[in-house]
Amino acid sequence: MPNATALVTLLAIIFYFYTGLRVGRARAKFGIKAPATTGHPDFERVFRVQMNTLEWMPIFLPALWLFALYVNDIGAAIVGLVWIVGRILFMTGYTEAASKRGRGFGIQAAATGILWVGALVGIIWHAAQG
Amino acid sequence: MPNATALVTLLAIIFYFYTGLRVGRARAKFGIKAPATTGHPDFERVFRVQMNTLEWMPIFLPALWLFALYVNDIGAAIVGLVWIVGRILFMTGYTEAASKRGRGFGIQAAATGILWVGALVGIIWHAAQG
Amino acid sequence: MPNATALVTLLAIIFYFYTGLRVGRARAKFGIKAPATTGHPDFERVFRVQMNTLEWMPIFLPALWLFALYVNDIGAAIVGLVWIVGRILFMTGYTEAASKRGRGFGIQAAATGILWVGALVGIIWHAAQG
């Protein structure tokens, strides 16, 4: 069983959960009552951090697991940790200003790209060997 | 194969699909034409039910399956059913008023927490045994 | 290992990623600065293409994989390709006009329905045989 990847998956989803908690706190701070999701730029950036992380979950998690199953568990876990670090930088940057979201975004995108390409190579390699 | 968890997964995704159907119906009822997602509070709460369920899918499904694979299939399925019940209460409550979404939300959050913590313990236990 | 389904999964997530790239380009074209997600109908339809694809990922991917594991790898992959074709038609149609999103939507919904029902039959069949 890919234990390391399983642990990183739990880490990734608790981090993502935390981006949602921050939206709840930002609702209170800026007086944005549910179901509204707009009304103050500072709230909207915190909301977009959660949404953007949500948007990437169906790319990151399948790529992470295909890499783990077709290439290597520890390798997947390490790149998965880099993804989480990138996501944290994206969160802290974007919360300050929309212009500061680029670096963290790039790191997590690069990590996802490595997982995707690695999984592709692994699947083709596996299939070619019958 | 974790048959019970597989069945509960199909149940969870058809329930989630239903929260999307309700958005389509609410569009017609309140005259909110796509691509707009705002314009009437009653519509916006129905939309937020779907969105909030979507937001939790990448937390719930991985935690459910890691619990199933590392702890127990039937246990995962039972807690998964509790999650669906909490989600139904969240849906019916939130549709009436934003203030009535708390109970169902709490139930599904508790169920997810059990799956997450159980999976964590199971992975560590499994890894420690080599 | 379900190699064909794994490949189709990589295809599906890169297509979904592309719907997000288009949102970035539409932001530039129509002058919608992050974190705003409204402001021009042409932008909002491109944004809704990404969002709707995101909304379907937690239905499509689990149904695809349960079908692959409980029924057949190649069958899952073929229906998964039909889903991607439907999604492409949905994207190109919706980008032109909200009224042109129906056909592609119907194709991808039908493909998902086949995966869901097939997985259900496969799980019950598997469980009944002990």
Give the DSSP E fraction of chain A (strand runs of 2 or more residues). Answer: under 5%
Quaternary organisation of the protein chains: homotrimer
Q: Which chains have the largest interface?
A: A-B, 21 and 24 residues
Poorly predicted regions of chain A are: none
Straight-line N-to-C gap of chain A: 22 Å
Class from helix and strand fractions of chain A? mainly alpha
> N-to-C SSE series of chain A?
HHHH
Rounded mean pLDDT score of chain A = 96
Q: How many beta-strand elements of chain A?
A: 0
Per DSSP, the total helix count of chain A is 4
Largest sheet of chain A, in brief, is:
none
Query: Can you give the helix content of chain A as a percent range?
Result: over 70%
Write a compact overview of the structure shown.
The first copy, chain A, is an all-alpha fold. Helices cover 84% and strands 0% of the residues of chain A.
Short descriptors:
mainly alpha, 4 helices, 130 residues, homotrimer, 0% strand
Descriptive report:
The structure is a homotrimer of 130-residue chains. Chain A has helices at 3-30, 41-70, 73-96, 102-128. Chain A is built from 4 helices and no strands. Chain A is elongated and about 60 Å long. The first copy, chain A, has 130 residues and is mostly helical. In chain A, helix 1 runs antiparallel to helix 2. The B-C interface holds B 1, 3, 6-7, 9-10, 13-14, 16-17, 20, 33-36, 38, 50, 54, 57-58, 61 and C 38, 41, 44-45, 47-48, 54-55, 58-59, 62-63, 66, 69-70, 98, 101, 116, 119-120, 123-124, 126-127.
